[in-house]
Amino acid sequence: MNLSFQISPVFLWRVSLVFALAFLGSLAIAAEEVQFPSSSMERLERYEAHQLGQANQAFRDGEYRKAESMYVAFMSEFPDSTALPFVLLRMGRSQHLDNKRFEAIRTYREVLDFFPNSVRYAAAALFYTGEAHWQNGDEEKALRSWITLAEDEEYREQDVGAEAMNRIGDQFVRQDRWSRAVEYYWQVAINFRDRNRSAARHAMDRVIQHYVKNDPNEERLREFYQKVRGFDRRRPRDVAEDLSEDRTYWGQVNREVDRHRRFGRDEEAEEKAYFRYWAEQMEGRFPAWDDFQIDLAGYHRRYEGDTSRWIARLDDLFERNQEDGDNARILRWMSILQDHPERVEAYYNKLDFEQMSNGEIFDLMRTAYREIENNRMGSNAFGRLRLGEMDDSLRGDVISFLRRHGEEAMVLRVVQSYDDPDRGQRDLLRYYHNLNETEKGVEVAQELVMVPDYAEEAYRRMGEMLQDNEQYQEAIAAYQMLDNAPWNMWRIAECYEAMGQTSQAVQTLRQVENFLEDHASEAALRIAQVYRDAGDREQQVSALRAVLNRYPESSQSRRAHLDLEELGYTRIGGGVQEDD
């Protein structure tokens, strides 16, 4: 491809004629734009570099027609410039992005005809030619351009080569020609692993999918793993030469098998073949690795359809690797077998409560209630807790869990064991508040307001419970004890409004508007909403106009504008007039 060339006046005239036609609009292209290296720019003459820099700036600003004419002018003024291949490519890109795709294709052709040895720009011209054909709806020509690029040993090593080969692969995938697609994905994943990670990740995922699911082949998957130096999508790593017993590799295989495990309802045969194949590949490996063996047992179950054999495999795995005192592993088996009560009971009986810490017993209690859904077992586990040996933090965690499970009697037992009785009452208040047990909660809160560290929370939770229970006057009294405006003021206004006392609600909100500048616009809008809920349209409109006039830059002003339009006031300017 050694070809020297100088731009002739005839060529310049023809290019100028081509560029004379234009259409409006622009089009974003996925691939990153090919740049003229700064080192090459430094070797240009000063005025030459200045002219090219201005043209490039117009291109970056999206002024494609201006850029196009500037590139034409550059070619006319500097016919011997080393930048000509780049300039001609950029003229094509300017046309392309100006929606003159057929003209752009002809310009790209000029790059290929006259500058085939300028690999960076010739490869880009081939890629963009395919892009233009694709956008024109001619997929066959697009694919032909990209394949030409991919088959050239120099062109395909350029950055656009990765994008082109991925496009080819994607097209073959759409045609369900995966074996052809993988040929291209394989190259991208290996050649661009370090310098174009996004393209490499896409290609890698496709190759993995093919050899894991479409055409399961552990031998080829292993070879690919070594070629790309691991399946970490972020960065390559050192890979062992022998992967037959490499835990990292087989752990990744297992994750990929699990990731691609979904099949449609009409793919039962394919699903069974899939899990049979991978169970056979994993069989006999890492007998002491619980995670691996549990998944393997699941794969056998998926193709055998035999639950009893699955349970037997799990039982055998447990007995093979269980160590004395490993109660956490027993809990894990109980969770895995949660749908089989007799096996759960059997494993429960293996627990050595004397050796279990309070934390482990609490884990058992949560497993029993939440996963196994066996309340009797959960209650029994609670009874095994040594409450007197806990710290108050763990006691609080137990009460928090019991808000959704367990019984009030359990909570009271825990509260009575607290080292800090006031903290125990605080957690009891939270328990009653969560259940909306107003009478009991208020009783606890009334005692807790005497404790300075918890008084604020006690008044707040008391007010919320009373408000939810429609005891509005009592709720207002609790909220008035708080020093957390405007939160308590919003709540007080809500209570007044619920009692039908519109003027008191408005008065409360006025205090926020007048004295809390950061919340003034929100308070003003809430006033309008209070009038709306009271059915007072005149006052509502007046309040909405006040929001517009006083807080024109606020989000509440925009909301007020919309509310006025919904009320039929569409001529909204300095004032508001109702449409006829």
List the defining traits of the structure above.
580 residues; Serine Threonine Protein Phosphatase 5, Tetratricopeptide repeat; 68% helix; disordered N terminus; disordered C terminus
List the helices and strands and how they pair.
Blueprint: H1 9-19, H2 38-42, H3 46-60, H4 64-77, H5 84-97, H6 101-114, H7 119-135, H8 139-151, H9 159-174, H10 178-191, H11 197-214, H12 218-227, H13 247-259, H14 268-282, H15 290-304, H16 307-321, H17 327-336, H18 341-348, H19 358-371, H20 375-384, H21 392-402, H22 408-416, H23 421-435, H24 438-448, H25 455-468, H26 472-479, H27 487-498, H28 502-515, H29 520-534, H30 537-550, H31 555-566, E1 571-572, E2 576-577
Antiparallel strand pairs: 1-2
Task: Explain the overall architecture.
This protein has 580 residues and is mostly helical. It has a domain of 96 residues: Alpha Horseshoe (Serine Threonine Protein Phosphatase 5, Tetratricopeptide repeat). Helices cover 68% and strands 1% of the residues. Strand 1 and strand 2 form a beta hairpin. It starts with 8 loop residues before the first helix and ends with a strand. The N terminus and C terminus are likely disordered.
Write a concise synopsis of the structure shown.
The protein is an all-alpha fold. It has 31 helices and 2 strands.
